[in-house]
Design a protein that fits this description.
The complex is a heterodimer of chains A (161) and B (170). Chain A is α/β, with parallel strands linked by helices and 161 residues long. Chain A is built from 5 helices and 6 strands; from the N terminus they run ββαβαβαβαβα. Chain A is 35% helix and 14% strand. Chain A has a 4-stranded parallel sheet with strand order 3-4-5-6. In chain A, strands 1-2 form a two-stranded antiparallel sheet.
């Protein structure tokens, strides 16, 4: 854990660390997802959030439909060009630091929809941190992606703004 | 209206029907596009076809002329199960004059159906109260379900998307 990044034992009851380590330790264990669900992947995302798979075990159960209270965008479902500008706008409304999960084949590369209306991968307009393949991916895959995001926060961290 | 029969219908619409066909118990009438509102009004008011099930279009580019067919599916709710009757009305229109009268004066529900046909085929419905694109972005400049449009051509969509980004989205 980040809190142990450079700990110095100073006797009983306290330890020293860096502000970044503590902040990132808090961030990674309380990710607030912004569910951007547009298709069947969103059902799997709901499954991951609900009691059976229970994403709250990883501290990421508080799905907020307000981007201003979220720091993890889970784009789950086919994104059309008409929706893309909305998706981008919602991403921009999220406060820094923020991360993006591309959930499912459609968001990763258009999936089966090689058509005039569908974006062939949301990395065309969003900086994606973790891609999940599958059509749709199982809730375990989403949990795995959240853990990968946590590791990323741990390793790379985020600047104190 | 309970003693309804297709023969009766055929008799009443004789002067309007150009040709008709029967397939697996489904009746299709080809009619003149100029008379479409008149015909559908008769079907609704005199024969009880109160429900417009669907309104769509077909592009026959390279298969036959005239290029477009507008298709109206009408349903008649009978008192008994076997009195429920469906008919299909088709009106052929040319590419040069891709327009037909709107039937929103008969069924207000035709509003969005006609908008979709306009959006996908570029067929103009004269007298429609609000003929705008319904699915594609408003500044989109192609008609995606026309057979001469490449369904993999994403450039028009990208153009609309870039414009939406510049102007701050929808």
């Amino acid at each position: 854990m980040g809190i142990n990044a450079a700990p110095t034992a100073g006797g009983e009851g306290f330890l020293t660390t860096t502000v970044n380590s503590v902040a990132n330790w808090g961030r990674k264990n309380s990710l607030w997802p912004m569910p951007f669900g547009t298709a069947c992947c969103a059902i799997e995302m709901m499954g991951a959030l609900a009691s059976r798979f229970d994403l709250s075990r990883f501290g990421a159960e508080v799905a907020r439909f307000s981007p201003r209270q979220a720091d993890l965008m889970i784009v789950s479902g086919t994104i059309t060009y008409k929706m893309a500008s909305v998706c981008r706008k919602i991403y921009e409304q999220m406060p820094e630091p923020k991360w993006v999960i591309a959930m499912g084949s459609c968001t990763c590369g258009g999936g089966p929809f090689d058509s005039y209306a569908v974006v062939q991968g949301i990395d065309e307009f969003l900086p994606v941190d973790v891609y999940i393949g599958g059509c749709p991916p199982r809730p375990e895959a989403l949990i795995d992606a959240v853990i990968k995001i946590q590791k990323k926060i741990d390793i790379e961290g985020a600047p104190i703004v | 209206m309970s003693n309804f029969s297709l023969e009766q219908l055929n008799g009443r619409l004789e002067s309007y029907i150009k040709s008709s066909s029967e397939f697996r118990g489904e009746t299709t009438y080809f009619v003149a596009p100029a008379k479409i509102v008149e015909i559908l009004k008769i079907l609704k008011e005199e024969f009880g076809f109160t429900y417009l099930v669907d309104l769509t279009a077909v592009d026959f580019l390279g298969i036959k002329t005239p290029r477009f067919e507008i298709v109206y599916y009408l349903h008649r709710f009978g008192e008994e199960y076997d009195e429920n009757i469906r008919v299909r009305i088709k009106a052929q229109i040319t590419e040069e004059n891709a327009a037909i009268d709107s039937v929103t004066s008969i069924w207000i529900g035709a509003d969005w159906l006609e908008r979709e046909v306009f959006d996908m085929f570029g067929i103009v419905f004269k007298g429609h109260p609000d003929l705008r694109r319904i699915l594609m972005p408003e500044d989109y400049d192609e008609y995606p379900l026309r057979k001469d449009f490449d369904v993999r051509n994403r450039e028009p969509s990208k153009k609309s998307f870039q414009k939406a980004l510049r102007e701050g989205g929808y």
